[in-house]
Protein backbone atom coordinates (compact mmCIF):
# COMPACT_ATOMS: atom_id res chain seq x y z
CA UNK A 1 0.00 0.00 0.00
CA UNK A 2 1.30 3.48 -0.76
CA UNK A 3 2.14 6.00 1.95
CA UNK A 4 -0.69 8.24 0.64
CA UNK A 5 -3.25 5.45 1.13
CA UNK A 6 -1.91 4.69 4.61
CA UNK A 7 -2.17 8.39 5.48
CA UNK A 8 -5.80 8.40 4.28
CA UNK A 9 -6.57 5.37 6.45
CA UNK A 10 -4.81 7.00 9.40
CA UNK A 11 -7.30 9.89 9.27
CA UNK A 12 -9.93 7.39 10.45
CA UNK A 13 -8.07 6.80 13.72
CA UNK A 14 -9.05 10.18 15.19
CA UNK A 15 -12.46 11.77 15.88
CA UNK A 16 -13.87 8.32 15.19
CA UNK A 17 -16.39 7.44 17.92
CA UNK A 18 -19.40 7.39 15.57
CA UNK A 19 -17.53 5.54 12.82
CA UNK A 20 -16.20 2.91 15.24
CA UNK A 21 -19.60 2.42 16.87
CA UNK A 22 -21.09 1.92 13.38
CA UNK A 23 -18.49 -0.72 12.52
CA UNK A 24 -18.91 -4.48 12.68
CA UNK A 25 -15.22 -5.01 13.41
CA UNK A 26 -12.34 -2.77 14.33
CA UNK A 27 -8.63 -3.13 14.85
CA UNK A 28 -5.72 -1.47 16.59
CA UNK A 29 -2.63 -0.85 14.52
CA UNK A 30 -0.47 -0.47 17.63
CA UNK A 31 -1.11 -3.90 19.20
CA UNK A 32 -2.45 -5.45 15.96
CA UNK A 33 -5.61 -6.87 17.52
CA UNK A 34 -8.93 -7.20 15.73
CA UNK A 35 -12.03 -7.08 17.91
CA UNK A 36 -15.69 -6.13 18.22
CA UNK A 37 -16.26 -2.38 18.68
CA UNK A 38 -18.45 -3.14 21.71
CA UNK A 39 -15.22 -3.99 23.57
CA UNK A 40 -14.19 -0.33 23.48
CA UNK A 41 -15.19 1.35 26.70
CA UNK A 42 -13.06 4.50 26.56
CA UNK A 43 -13.13 7.36 24.13
CA UNK A 44 -10.66 10.23 24.44
CA UNK A 45 -12.35 13.64 24.45
CA UNK A 46 -10.99 15.87 21.70
CA UNK A 47 -11.04 19.67 21.68
CA UNK A 48 -11.86 20.07 18.01
CA UNK A 49 -14.04 17.10 17.15
CA UNK A 50 -15.83 14.05 18.39
CA UNK A 51 -14.05 11.64 20.76
CA UNK A 52 -11.40 9.19 19.59
CA UNK A 53 -11.57 5.46 20.34
CA UNK A 54 -9.02 4.05 22.78
CA UNK A 55 -7.88 0.45 22.43
CA UNK A 56 -9.18 -1.77 25.25
CA UNK A 57 -5.99 -3.87 25.07
CA UNK A 58 -3.04 -1.47 24.71
CA UNK A 59 -4.69 1.86 25.56
CA UNK A 60 -3.61 3.76 22.47
CA UNK A 61 -5.65 5.79 20.01
CA UNK A 62 -4.78 3.66 16.97
CA UNK A 63 -8.24 2.23 16.24
CA UNK A 64 -9.85 1.92 12.80
CA UNK A 65 -13.31 0.48 12.18
CA UNK A 66 -14.58 -1.14 9.01
CA UNK A 67 -17.20 1.61 8.67
CA UNK A 68 -14.22 3.65 7.42
CA UNK A 69 -14.57 1.72 4.15
CA UNK A 70 -11.39 -0.28 4.73
CA UNK A 71 -11.37 -4.00 5.48
CA UNK A 72 -9.74 -4.58 8.85
CA UNK A 73 -7.14 -7.32 8.35
CA UNK A 74 -3.92 -8.41 10.02
CA UNK A 75 -2.06 -7.23 6.92
CA UNK A 76 -3.58 -3.75 7.06
CA UNK A 77 -2.83 -3.37 10.77
CA UNK A 78 0.76 -4.53 10.23
CA UNK A 79 1.31 -2.05 7.40
CA UNK A 80 -0.15 0.75 9.51
CA UNK A 81 2.03 -0.21 12.49
CA UNK A 82 5.13 -0.25 10.30
CA UNK A 83 4.31 3.16 8.84
CA UNK A 84 3.21 4.99 11.97
CA UNK A 85 5.09 3.29 14.81
CA UNK A 86 8.10 1.25 13.64
CA UNK A 87 9.35 3.98 11.30
CA UNK A 88 9.37 6.47 14.21
CA UNK A 89 11.41 4.09 16.36
CA UNK A 90 13.94 3.55 13.56
CA UNK A 91 14.26 7.30 12.99
CA UNK A 92 14.64 7.96 16.73
CA UNK A 93 17.33 5.29 17.06
CA UNK A 94 19.15 6.68 14.03
CA UNK A 95 19.00 10.17 15.50
CA UNK A 96 20.31 8.85 18.82
CA UNK A 97 23.17 7.14 16.98
CA UNK A 98 24.04 10.39 15.25
CA UNK A 99 24.05 12.22 18.59
CA UNK A 100 26.47 9.65 20.05
CA UNK A 101 28.89 10.21 17.16
CA UNK A 102 29.30 13.90 18.04
Written description of the protein model:
The protein is an alpha+beta fold and 102 residues long. The chain has one domain. The chain is built from three helices and five strands. The radius of gyration is 15 Å and the shape is globular. The N and C termini lie far apart (37 Å).
Distance between the termini: 37 Å
Number of strands: 5
The backbone outline, from C-alpha atoms, is globular
The largest pleated sheet is described as:
3 strands, antiparallel
Rg is 15 Å
Low-confidence runs of at least 5 consecutive residues: none
Our count of domains comes out at 1
Q: Order of strands across the biggest sheet? A: 2-1-5
Relevant terms:
40% helix, 102 residues, alpha+beta, 3-stranded antiparallel sheet, 3 helices, two-stranded antiparallel ribbon
Ordered list of secondary-structure elements with their pairings:
Blueprint (H helix, E strand, L loop, with lengths): L2 H8 L6 H5 L4 E3 L4 E3 L7 E4 L2 E5 L9 E3 L8 H28 L1
Antiparallel strand pairs: 1-2, 1-5, 3-4
Compact description:
The chain is an alpha+beta fold and 102 residues long. It is built from 3 helices and 5 strands; from the N terminus they run ααβββββα.
Amino acid sequence: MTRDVLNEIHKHSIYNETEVKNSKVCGCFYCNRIFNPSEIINYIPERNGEPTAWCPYCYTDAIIGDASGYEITDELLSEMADEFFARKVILALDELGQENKK
